[in-house]
Amino acid sequence: MKKISSEQIIDALQKAVIRANVSLDANIIAMLRNAIKKEENELALKILNILLENAEISLSRNTPLCQDTGVAVLFVTIGSNVSIKGMPLEKAINEGIKEGYEKGFLRKSIVSSPIKRINTNTNTPTIIHYNYTEGEEFIIDLLIKGGGCENKSALKMLKPSDGINGINDFVIDTVKCAGAAACPPFFIGIGLGGNFEKCALLAKKALLRDVGAFNSKEYLKSMEVELLSKINKLSIGPMGVSGKTTAFSVAIEEAPCHIASLPVAVNIDCHSHRHRRIVF
């Protein structure tokens, strides 16, 4: 039996929250540099260099990559042989997020009610998804999601007869609608199948994939490659100023669905793509 204390969870999460908000993933840095090499549009080139400079300043000064320090979305994988000591797991998670936002001097953006709009001043409650498994595995995937890109995400219940062309059209239309408002170059998560809520969860989960990695299923990888090419041909470009790079990555996840349904969800993430994995 693996024993994890609530204090360990709180400490690991508060550090991960701060790190995710101030340190851009090395693979994304590499993507920015690669985009700079191939860009011909002068304004797009300037924007890409600013994004790279912003990442360097954020890391050196320990300040957020973006003023919108987002909502913390957690995917928790916990084995049957893991025991949490101290406070309940969900309470510990929320405490860790709260401490991270306080110690990191990060903007708190959660309101207690979508109608009343009163800020909780803790950036909690956190959005948590649980996956229960066997053994002693205990992993927390943290995704920091800003309002601008989340607001441009979309879901549609297509007909099975719409097929791949219908999926592609919906994804492209969603990206067009997002435009500059979602802070491109994008990371795009796509969920296919399941039902209304499942495909949205799959789209979010797709964003947790290693940066630049493709789906292991060849037919989904083919769709990812094709969509990425089509999206970049839209020439929305960095921060919407036109250019060759509108998206860095397209990731698709799928699940079985009803014979009469073809649910599709598109979850857009901005160029910062703030994600950290904690393995206990």
Provide a descriptive summary of the structure in words.
Helix content is 40%, strand content 25%. By secondary structure, it is an alpha/beta fold. It has two domains: 2-20 and 65-145, 2-Layer Sandwich (Dihydrodipicolinate Reductase, domain 2); 148-273, 60s Ribosomal Protein L30, Chain: A (2-Layer Sandwich). The strands form three sheets. It has a four-stranded mixed sheet with strand order 4-2-5-10. A four-stranded mixed sheet has the order 6-9-7-8. Helix 1 runs parallel beside helix 4 and helix 6 (163-178) runs parallel beside helix 8. The two termini are 13 Å apart. The mean pLDDT is 97.
In short:
The chain is an alpha/beta fold and 280 residues long. The chain has helices at 6-22, 26-38, 42-61, 89-103, 147-151, 163-178, 196-206, 218-232, and strands at residues 2-5, 71-79, 82-85, 127-133, 138-145, 154-158, 186-194, 247-257, 262-269, 274-279. It has 8 helices and 10 strands.
SSE layout:
Elements (H helix, E strand, L loop, with lengths): L1 E4 H17 L3 H13 L3 H20 L9 E9 L2 E4 L3 H15 L23 E7 L4 E8 L1 H5 L2 E5 L4 H16 L7 E9 L1 H11 L11 H15 L14 E11 L4 E8 L4 E6 L1
Parallel strand pairs: 1-3, 2-4, 7-8
Antiparallel strand pairs: 2-5, 5-10, 6-9, 7-9
Helix pairs in contact: 1-4, 2-3, 6-8
